[in-house]
């Protein structure tokens, strides 16, 4: 079974460009929704009058090198440098997309 997470967006083109710059590819283009794919992760954004800003879009990497490389690209948008989270045994950092949606970059350790 596969799945897709959808979000409403008020800034469709800017949000899609942000995630494509992170390495996501367009999986399916619909009249007012774009579904992106990053590895096995599919997520879509639909142009609406309000945006869904709850939840966290999380990208999982194989190791710290992948997280660190993404941090180098997004340092200006990050809340802090990557760090080890003892509670969940992960290495992570958080950033925000163009609408302020929380985006997490992590690897399990």
Structural write-up:
The chain is of the alpha/beta class and 109 residues long. It contains two helices and eight strands, in the order βαββββαβββ. It has helices spanning 12-21, 64-74; strands spanning 5-9, 25-29, 33-38, 41-47, 56-60, 83-85, 90-96, 102-108. The chain has a four-stranded mixed beta sheet with strand order 1-4-3-2, covered by helices on one side. The protein is globular.
TL;DR?
19% of the residues lie in helices and 41% in strands.
SSE blueprint:
Layout: E1 5-9, H1 12-21, E2 25-29, E3 33-38, E4 41-47, E5 56-60, H2 64-74, E6 83-85, E7 90-96, E8 102-108
Parallel strand pairs: 1-4, 5-8
Antiparallel strand pairs: 2-3, 3-4, 6-7, 7-8
InterPro entries: Glyas_Bleomycin-R_OHBP_Dase
Protein name: Nitroreductase
What spatial form do the alpha-carbon principal axes imply?
Answer: globular
Question: Helical amount among residues, as a percent range?
Answer: 10-25%
* Count of beta strands: 8
Give the N-terminus to C-terminus distance in angstroms: 26 Å
Number of domains: 2
* CATH fold assignment of the largest domain: 2,3-Dihydroxybiphenyl 1,2-Dioxygenase, domain 1
Computed Rg: 14 Å
Strand ordering within the main sheet = 1-4-3-2
Tell me the major beta sheet: 4 strands, mixed
**What is the CATH class name of the largest domain?**
Alpha Beta
Instruction: List low-confidence stretches.
Output: none
CATH architecture of the largest domain: Roll
Order of helices and strands: EHEEEEHEEE
By DSSP (H or I, 4+ residues per run), the number of helices equals 2
Strand residue content: 35-45%
Organism: Natrarchaeobaculum sulfurireducens
InterPro entries: Glyas_Bleomycin-R_OHBP_Dase
Protein name: Nitroreductase
């Amino acid at each position: 079974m596969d799945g897709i997470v959808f979000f409403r967006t008020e800034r469709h083109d800017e949000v899609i460009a942000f995630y494509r710059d992170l390495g996501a590819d367009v999986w399916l283009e619909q009249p007012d929704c774009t579904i992106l794919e990053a590895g096995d992760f599919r997520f879509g954004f639909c142009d609406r009058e309000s945006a869904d800003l709850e939840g966290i879009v999380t990208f999982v990497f194989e190791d710290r090198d992948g997280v660190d490389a993404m941090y180098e690209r997004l340092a200006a948008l990050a809340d802090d440098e990557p760090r080890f989270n003892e509670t969940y045994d992960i290495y992570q950092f958080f950033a925000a997309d163009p609408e302020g949606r929380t985006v997490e970059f992590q690897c399990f350790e």
